[in-house]
Write a structure and sequence with these properties.
Layout (H helix, E strand, L loop, with lengths): L7 E5 L4 H12 L3 E6 L2 H10 L4 E5 L5 H11 L2 E6 L14 H21 L2 E10 L12 H20 L4 E7 L12 H14 L8 H13 L7 E4 L7
Parallel strand pairs: 1-2, 1-4, 2-3, 4-5, 5-6, 6-7
Helix pairs in contact: 1-7, 4-5
Bound molecules: NADP nicotinamide-adenine-dinucleotide phosphate.
The site of NADP nicotinamide-adenine-dinucleotide phosphate has 31 residues, from helix 1 and helix 4.
Length: 237
């Protein structure tokens, strides 16, 4: 079913994980998808994995002038998804302030800068990615929860300011993506197993679970100002 036939879609953070899965799903529904991120090699690899179904653009959400120039050159998109972030995490009293500021700059201000610069067609949408820690704080990731809550509030406000462009947030629980590649294979497998056992859904989240919700938000004309949790029940566990 090509419900996005001919629609121009940008996925910022589309070279990996949730963004990559979303780009693949959106392209599968007929959209002309561009994936954007900082690393050209990661972009090329993701494009190859998609079988050539997506285009690529090098873009850094930290660079506001670069974002302005990109959107001026590209013109309007029908739909923009922002999944880009790189955030250090840790207890407030242990995480160095410089890392805390960098995390907020990457995930919150990165999305803010994209929202500010993007040109989105009437009837289009902007979808941000937050995370379930925004509603279920963890004592070892307090900042991450605060960033996610700020993003969700940003999206609700933008749904008013940018109307009739729709603005929504998808809030994932723990998802098996390259975000977790910083720990050993063994430690990661053990962590995923523990998480799956604790969750009501009794499984670890996959990028496709979140991509599915992103497609719902992009393609549902009545959805705006919404936050969709896709967390295996993590927020209630
Ligand atoms: N995985 C989880 O368990 C989980 C849970 C809750 C929430 N989330 C959230 O979901 C989002 C996506 O996470 P993920 O798991 O898919 O992570 P991921 O696999 O590490 O992907 C992150 C993507 O963001 C891009 N990126 C990072 N910084 C960027 C920047 N400054 N400008 C442009 N692109 C940038 C990366 O590409 P480059 O390196 O090429 O720039 C990559 O494509 C994040 O906001 C994350 O916090 C994830």
């Amino acid at each position: 079913m090509n419900k996005l036939e001919g629609k121009k879609v940008l996925v910022v953070g589309g070279s990996s994980g949730i963004g990559e899965a979303a780009a693949r799903e959106l392209a599968g529904f007929g959209a002309e998808v561009t994936i954007a991120s900082r690393d050209p090699l990661k972009l090329q690899a993701a494009a190859a994995r998609s079988g050539g179904a997506v285009r690529t653009a090098v873009l850094d959400t930290a660079n506001d002038a670069g974002l302005e120039a990109f959107f001026a050159a590209q013109g309007e998109f029908d739909h923009v998804v922002v999944s880009a972030a790189q955030t250090a995490s840790g207890p407030v009293r242990q995480l160095p302030l410089v890392d805390a500021y960098a995390a907020m700059n990457s995930k919150f201000w990165g999305a803010y800068r994209v929202a500010r610069a993007a040109r989105i067609a009437e009837g289009g949408s902007l979808t941000l990615v937050s995370g379930f820690l925004g509603v279920r704080p963890s004592k070892t990731s307090v900042l991450q929860g605060a960033i996610n809550a700020a993003l969700e509030s940003l999206a609700r406000g933008l749904a008013l300011e940018l109307s009739p462009v729709r603005v929504n947030t998808v809030s994932p629980g723990m998802i098996a993506t390259p975000m977790w590649s910083g720990i050993s294979d063994e430690a990661r497998a053990a962590k995923f197993e523990t998480v799956a056992a604790r969750l009501p859904a009794r499984r670890m989240g996959q990028p496709e679970d979140v991509a599915n919700a992103i497609v719902y938000l992009v393609t549902t004309p009545y959805a705006t100002g919404s936050t969709v949790l896709v967390d295996g029940g993590g927020a209630i566990a």
